[in-house]
Amino acid sequence: MNFDLTDEQQMIRKTIREFADEVVAPGAIERDRTKEFPKDIFRQLGEMGMMGLPFDEKYGGAGADTVSFAIVTEELSRACASTGITYSAHISLGGAPLNLFGTEEQKEKYLVPICTGESLGAFGLTEPNAGSDAGGTQTAAKSEGDDFVISGNKVFITNASHAKHLALTAITGSADGKKEISAIIVPTDAEGFKVIDNYEKMGLNASNTTELVLENVRVPQENLLGKRGNGFRQFLVTLDGGRIGIGAMAVGIAQAAFDRSLQYAKERKQFGRAIADFQVNQFKLADMAMKIELARTMVYKAAWLKDQGRPFSKEAAMCKLYASEIAMEVADEAIQLHGGYGYMKEYEVERYMRDAKLLEIGEGTSEVQHMVIARHIGV
Amino acid sequence: MNIYALVKRTFDTEEKISVQNGQIAEDGAEFIINPYDEYAVEEAIRVRDEHGGEVTVLTIGSEEAEKQLRTALAMGADKAVLINTEDDLDELDEFGASTIIAEYLKDKDADLIIAGNVAIDGGSGQVGPRVAELLDINYVTTITELKIDGDKATVVRDVEGDSETIEAQMPLLVTAQQGLNDPRYPSLPGIMKAKKKPLEELELDDIDLDEDDVEVKVERVDVFLPPEKQAGRVLEGDLQDQVKELVQLLRNEAKVI
């Protein structure tokens, strides 16, 4: 048993922490207000080689591990969760399925621009009537000669405005009266493909969340990603990895909320002393610190299992569920501790709460995480 | 070009300094490459990228300093040398450090040596110039710009807010001032490769030095923290009166004029 990070992981944490503090954090409030996508930050992350973090060097990646991915996602999210989710989705939803299921040719063509940061990674699963319930999928890909002709709608798709291509699920036929769902890589500039970026969200305002409209979008059948009919199963595997990213994001937001609370509690004076001198607040801060520590440990464990090539679905669900719920609790306490100031945007903590809420919803709601865990514990 | 960057492991600038038993407590403190030395490493990498050659980062210290060397390798330096004095020396001053460095460098045919202007801990700014003296090569301190053309360097140096341009013959030692460059973040591929780059570890023996050769010349009498900052006072009233009062206070209370 060894809880130490490796030398590389420590150096990655130090580097990305500095970058997050110096480059990402300063504009976070402003971007939340203006909804401006942090394009320049991603250009710099690309220059630093962070965009292909876990992927093989031959595709332009850096060959780092999942623990390092969790560290980078946590640190970016601590400074700005919109930046964190963009990064997490880019790697774990955009790049990972190509890396896991793509042919050599597909990786050359589609994974390389993701590793360099030329294209952001995105992934099209959720539909108006389908997400974790795959049976509701309505997007259909009809075979016509050597092509698929795809029509349908996808909702809440992260990063699509900045992606040159993405993998999405579509019905490619039926077998035994069940929908056959496959994953297909689609260039976003294909004719009939519209990316609509006009959601008004509660939080994560500087991240790009889009609706995809496909009307008879024609792609060659060689764009099939993985096995025909395996689309949904592949996405479940992808989501397992994505949940580690969500867990890491949650830890980052919670850490930011805690850091601000601790500082504020020591500075703010009421009734003649710092509010940190009151035991009620000390207990609150102790609880926050404990929850964050537990959540981070669980995120690291899930990441470590993945790096060992061991099953990690249950742990990924647990870390996602626990970390996202404590992120909300910690953000809530952080606002409470700040009193009236906490309700003001200038003090940042209210943003943490708005941003954290998505983590209990995206990549499987908390309820779905409970289902996944229940399935794994033999009930 | 054969380039050396001299680096020192120092306290993180964010770290709170505390003194215990006459020593600065290091427990749990974060350490970094001395920020001025980071400019030196960055400049060395830039010069190499422009003119070719090799960058070696050099430090004196304990095993712990390997982290800072690896960081410099992750930034893009090619090789690292750690002169480990942990077992040989309890104390090291500017004389000792420069003797060790010069002794190591004397047969290395360095074309360019870049050091930080000062280390943020000791703050003496002596080691760089001393090394140059011992090696009998030119040196320019507190530089903010460096251009190299053949065996000539054109250097802009910071002189108390103004600047001075100097031409110097290589081999040359310069010390880096803030403003020389904007050090890069180590790239992720750089971090992943840093461990595979050569890091040579030497002891005093390996460079034919004895403990006696680097015996400290400086005696440390005391270590103490600066007095805690008192709350400020805001003067009130008529501007004329305020000025009068300020002068009074500066003369009689603060006794600075």
Features of this protein?
heterodimer; A: alpha+beta; Butyryl-Coa Dehydrogenase, subunit A, domain 1; Butyryl-CoA Dehydrogenase, subunit A, domain 2; Butyryl-CoA Dehydrogenase, subunit A, domain 3; 3 domains; 4-stranded antiparallel β-sheet; 16% strand; B: 257 residues; alpha/beta; Rossmann fold; 9-stranded mixed β-sheet; two-stranded antiparallel ribbon; 13 strands; electron transfer activity (chain B); Rossmann-like_a/b/a_fold (chain B); ETF_beta_N (chain B); Electron transfer flavoprotein subunit beta (chain B); electron transport (chain B)
Largest interface: A-B, 18 and 14 residues
Strand fraction band of chain B? 25-35%
Q: What would CATH call the class of the largest domain in chain A?
A: Mainly Alpha
What Rg of chain A do the Cα atoms give?
21 Å
Total domain units of chain B: 2
Write down the CATH topology of the largest domain in chain A.
Butyryl-CoA Dehydrogenase, subunit A, domain 3
Uncertain runs of chain B:
none
Give the C-alpha Rg of chain B. 21 Å
For this structure, the quaternary state is heterodimer
Identify the CATH architecture of the largest domain in chain A. Answer: Up-down Bundle
Query: What's the main sheet of chain B like?
Result: 9 strands, mixed
- Tell me the structural class of chain A: alpha+beta
CATH fold annotation of the largest domain in chain B: Rossmann fold
Large-scale geometry of chain B = globular
CATH class of the largest domain in chain B: Alpha Beta
**If strands are numbered along the chain, what order do they take across the biggest sheet of chain B?**
11-10-9-12-8-1-6-7-13
Can you tell me the CATH architecture of the largest domain in chain B?
3-Layer(aba) Sandwich
Q: CATH superfamily of the largest domain in chain A, called what?
A: Butyryl-CoA Dehydrogenase, subunit A, domain 3
| Run of helices and strands of chain A | HHHHHHEEEEEEEEHEEHHHH
- Unreliable stretches of chain A: none
Class of secondary structure makeup of chain B: alpha/beta
